[in-house]
Give the backbone structure.
Amino acid sequence: MESSVQTLAPAQPSRLLSSGLGWRRRSVNTVMMVLIAGAFVLAMIPLFSLVFEVAKRGIPGLSADFFTTDARGVVGGGGAAHAIVGTLVITGVASLISVPIGIMAAIYLNEYGTGRLRRALTFFVDVMTGIPSIVAGLFAYALFELFFGPGIRLGVMGSVALSLLMIPIVIRSAEEVLKIVPNHLREAAYALGTPKWKVIAKIVLPTAFAGLITGVMIAIARIVGETAPLLVTTGVVDSMNSDPFNGRMQNLAVYAYNEYRSPGVMKQAAYDKAWAAALTLIAIVMILNVAARLVYRRYKTEIR
Amino acid sequence: MLGAATKRTPTEAEEGKGKMTDSRAATATSTEPVAAAGRPAKTIEARGVNLFYGDFHAVEEVTMTIEPNKVTALIGSSGCGKTTFLRSLNRMHELTPSARVEGHVALDGEDIYGAAVDPVAVRRLIGMVFQQPNPFPTMSIYDNVAAGLNLNARKVSKAQKDGVVERSLRGAHLWDEVKDRLDKPGGSLSGGQQQRLCIARAIAVEPEVLLMDEPCSALDPVATLAIEDLIAELKSRYTIVIVTHNMQQAARASDVTAFFNIEGTGKPGHLVEVGATEEIFTKPQKQETEDYVSGRFG
């Protein structure tokens, strides 16, 4: 038996092979790809040049001293240890304030909220995401001035100001993550006779855990470099202070600003240290972002 | 019993009201599915049940009795309210925002929609298995089965929990397949195994009634057969209500069948006829039923 598949000789010019139209489409395709890739490169240039520049100018300012000593009593020398510690403390306390409030608000909005109150809350959260950071700082200052009198400067004031900026970000990202938890998991827990709060605490939150942590880390990365609110709340100081409730506290952003603005006698050393502080800030943000990705990958639950 | 979530005591199990055979009880070892000699499976009575989603009237005037230790199948075409009615039996319907229930549903005489009744307590007595297997993805197989115990704040020792997990997995015919990997995540099983895991999870809390919403529709025929065999065995210990799209499954697996129908889109679904499965399928009383079971519409 002959092969039952016979090739037919085309009786007319093939409709499947493209005519001139194909060549034009291909060239348009190539042009668009070049344009898109070019736009991407263009967008990346400022980023890379920024990192390169900061690294180039910041590395000379780095030294063991930079990380270990503060600037107390030293003219032109000293390091930024107090600033680093200050940044960590202020950011840490801000997270301690923002994370519980933010996540609980997101739980309310997603699991309990109905109708008008929920819409009003969502609206206000959206408004809060746009608060200029100096406004947050002034608010925190005014609040503490009410209780402690004018001129008060405390580390915790900076944390309060930063948490005003951080809370809406935490709420927004936590809300998105909680929405992704599929409803059939909640139903399965309800069907076992589980009270609602336990369904949230033991099923919804653990399932959303990775996403929640990522959202928190991104919020932290957002506020770690804020300068304006900290200028008016935590002040400028040269000595190490790790107690947020006791006096001024230095931080990397204000430190960089200060070294640049009042370099004192040894100008170049001061500028170097300002750049080094900026470099440290960038490094902290990068570490946080990488950590956020690693945590997400490690803890995410495959929801089938 | 429903007003306070009381833990069932062993003495209740020894009351001679059950329908278990003594021979099964005699040969049971401590980890075999415990022959619940004397543990009565309960009756559910629905009277004049009307179900709403907001203003939309979804199910109209259902009055029927779910008989103990029998499998009741709810059949009917898509959208006629079978699942909505099923979910009203364990107070899951009201979890949908703006959903409303009117009428009476009583578990062995006690109105489950009473003012003082805790819906959480109702759901511990009336369990549910869903169409899509939904094991908790953050938990291991062991924790999934024990989830009912963990989530309900029943303080049980580890040894007791081990016993419950083994008993439930044996009861769901899953023990031999997973006993070596109890700490693996719940999502690592096949579809049929996941559904049996969900059944094990449901029976671990020892409900009195088990509601199943199209439990086999997402499974292949082999897994479906395994689940149907399981249902046949479970009915000796629980009252089972199963919603199914598959008429042949209803004919195979159930003792009582209730046929729901809907007059048109936008109209509420209603109960057309309920009776012994054999009668519904061979000599139904209503013409509508006859048309449906003989495939004239569906």
User: Anything to note?
Assistant: Residues 3 and 115 of chain B are 10 Å apart (CA to CA).
